[in-house]
Design brief:
- The protein is mostly beta strands and 141 residues long.
- The chain contains one helix and nine strands.
- The protein has a five-stranded antiparallel β-sheet, with no helix packed on it. Strands 1-4-8-7 form a four-stranded mixed β-sheet, with helices on one face.
- A hairpin with a 4-residue loop joins β5 (68-71) and β6.
- The chain starts with a strand and ends with a helix.
- It binds calcium ion (2 copies).
- The site of one calcium ion has 4 residues, from β8.
Length: 141
């Protein structure tokens, strides 16, 4: 099983589900392409790659403090920002409880746009581990 999983951008928004918190103004749906295998992926560190085509940096706090990731059932997910670059590409790890197998529609929501939010990162150890492995792989290439 892969340790990290790259998110593909979603287009089909399921808009009739519950908004996480009215203090947040924007959200984007991130869906997972996992139809190639029948196995559910459990507690997966997911690397979310963001740029100005995927997030409106003018609406985020300038270090991404107001980023939140919320599962389909409303659970707020642990995340850690690896790199935040409003002039380019940002990298954020999110711990996803389950990515359904044989599915291209399982998703999480990314919320932003709350100038009053405190930094929401929680930096769980398993995300640090995934980040460490990625940096080693990058160096060895
Ligand atoms: Ca900003
Ligand atoms: Ca899921």
């Amino acid at each position: 099983m892969a340790d990290a999983y790259i998110v593909d951008e979603d287009t089909a928004l399921n808009s009739n589900d519950t908004w996480f918190d009215s203090n947040w103004s924007f959200r984007r749906t991130l869906s997972f392409k996992n139809s190639v295998q029948s196995e559910n992926l459990v507690d997966v560190p997911v690397l979310v790659t963001l740029d100005s085509t995927r997030i409106d940096y003018t609406q985020t706090q300038n270090n991404g403090e107001d980023l939140r990731f919320v599962d389909g059932d409303g659970t707020v997910l642990a995340h850690e920002i690896e790199e935040w670059n409003e002039a380019g590409t940002s990298y954020v790890w999110v711990k996803v409880p389950q990515i359904d197998g044989s599915s291209d529609t399982d998703f999480i929501h990314m919320y932003y746009g709350n100038a009053g939010a405190a930094d929401g990162q929680s930096r769980p150890a398993d995300l640090r581990g995934a980040r460490y492995r990625r940096s080693r792989e990058t160096r060895s290439r």
